[in-house]
Amino acid sequence: SRIVKVYMTKNAHVCKASNEGYKRATGKYIAIIGHDDIWYPDKVEKQVLFMEANPNYAAVFTLTDIMDDYGNLCNEQCKDLYLLFDQHNRTQEEWIELMYSGVNVFCAPSALIRKSCLKGRPLYQFGLVQLQDYALWFDLIKEFPVYVIREHLMQYRQFMESQSNL
């Protein structure tokens, strides 16, 4: 009963849909998941506990397992992507330096974001279609620390046959 479904009148891209959901959200935290990804049952609970204990953090991420088109874990076959999302915690300055190198190491569906830290800015920028969340992480990290829970708490789907990931 706490979840409100919002249907777009037409398919308008993940950026528009996510930003519309964010505008309508009334909770303290924002978490976005694609229809093809999976959160483990305790993901959000562990993230909320961290955020409640650490009110100065803007976001908390988790480690990510990779699954194929059929839901089979494929961390070894997708080792580059698996290792990209396998991040250790850093200072804000270290995160910024890493992001300046042009690498987005954050898996968006693994994030739980403190809504008050967003300050009305959109979640995703349409002009960065393949990295729509990159500007968001950069903006947040410039002002606030972020944290990575060093547990695999979700599965990100990597389409290996159709190669339809952005």
Structural description of this entry:
With about 170 residues, the chain is of the alpha+beta class. Helices cover about 30% and strands about 15% of the residues. The chain has six helices and five strands, in the order αββαβααβααβ. It has helices spanning about 15-25, 45-55, 80-85, 90-100, 115-120, 135-145, and strands at about 30, 40, 60-65, 110-115, 145-155. It has a five-stranded mixed β-sheet with strand order 1-4-3-5-2. Helix 4 runs antiparallel to helix 6 (about 135-145). The protein is globular and about 40 Å long. The termini are far apart. The model has no long low-confidence stretch (mean pLDDT about 90).
Topology:
Blueprint: H1 14-24, E1 29-30, E2 38-39, H2 43-53, E3 59-67, H3 79-84, H4 92-100, E4 112-114, H5 115-118, H6 134-143, E5 146-157
Parallel strand pairs: 3-5
Antiparallel strand pairs: 1-4, 2-5, 3-4
Helix pairs in contact: 4-6
What fraction, in percent, of the residue positions are helical?
Answer: 25-40%
**Global shape:** globular
Number of DSSP helical runs? 6
Q: Give the strand order of the largest sheet, numbering strands 1, 2, ... along the chain.
A: 1-4-3-5-2
Q: What is the residue-averaged pLDDT? A: 88
How far from one another are the termini?
33 Å
Low-confidence stretches: none
| Sequence of secondary-structure elements | HEEHEHHEHHE
| Content-based structural category | alpha+beta
> Got a strand count?
5
Over all CA atoms, what is the radius of gyration?
Answer: 15 Å
Proportion of residues in β-strands: 15-25%
Largest sheet: 5 strands, mixed
